Each structure stands twice: as structure tokens, then as C-alpha cells.
Description:
The protein is mainly alpha-helical. It has one domain: Four Helix Bundle (Hemerythrin (Met), subunit A), CATH 1.20.120. The chain contains five helices and two strands; from the N terminus they run αβααβαα. It has helices at residues 3-34, 45-65, 72-96, 124-138, 143-171; strands spanning 38-40, 104-106. Strands 1-2 form a two-stranded antiparallel sheet. The longest helix is centred in the first third of the chain and has 32 residues, at 3-34.
Amino acid sequence: MTSQILFTVLIAAVGLERVAELIVARRNAAWAFARGGWEAGAGHYPVMVVLHTGLLAGALVEVWLTPAPFVPVLGVTMLVLALGSQGLRWWCISSLGPRWNTRVIVVPGLPLVQGGPYRWLRHPNYVAVVVEGLALPLVHSAWITAAVFTVANAALLTVRIRTENRALVAAAPAQG
Length: 176
């Protein structure tokens, strides 16, 4: 079996993982909206969907249509990082429970989650996104995809994190 086929299987597995995330997100959105939750930053969400879909598609296209070689030391290292980012993402999902979403949806009056990776980082899910966006394409030396996604994702995360921080402040319980 060629490394390109194995890489395609990996990308397909990540694609299926994304479908699982969307199922969880839809369920969690219903939970949040039923409790008075509201969405912030809906305008950047379609851009995020296109960017993340482009990561998977771009990596496949680059590996199949260019001479992107499989370099074992790089590939194995990046695979470990990509898998670690998946572990961190699901730790975030587990720690936030029904409050986790692919959209920025907040429920007024709920305190910030302080457990799991949120004990150390304010936005650990975005750490997972950054690591995965760089590492996943580099499993098979798809440098162009890794670079383009990383730059575009940095711009998107600038907007996303600002939006999320504002929403969290607006929804925070009153201090008194």
C-alpha cells in the first residue's frame, strides 16, 4: 500500500471525526438555545467551514498531484502531533460538555469552565486547531497546504477569539 493511500485514509478518518464534531455541536447548540443561549460571530462561521474543509482537500490534492514525498521522520513526528491535537480537542469537548460547539454560542449566567485543559489555557481547542493545521498536511510533506492553512487560520482565529472573548464577557454572571 502506498503512502498516498495511507495518507488518504488518515484524511478520511479526520473527515469522519469532523462529522462527529458537527453532530455533537448540533446537539449542544440545541441545549444552549433551550437555556437562552445566543450566537455571536455567525458571519465568520462559513469562512471557518471552508477553511477547515480546504485543509483536508488541499492536503489530499497536494499529496496526489505534486511530488510531496513521505519523509518518515517528519511524517511520524507530525502524525504524533496530529493525533495529540485530536486528543486535546476531545479533552476540550469533554471538559466543556454541552457548552462546547463549533459555533460561538454562549448561555448567559454560566461561569467559565475551569477544569480540564481550561485550567491552564483560555482557548485550548484553538491550540489543537493550530497544531493540527500545521501537522496534518506535513504527515506527507504537504508544505503548501500547511503554510496556506496556517496563515489563513491565524487571520480567522484573530477574529474568532476576539468574538468569543466578547461573547463570554457579555454572558458572564453578574459579580456582586
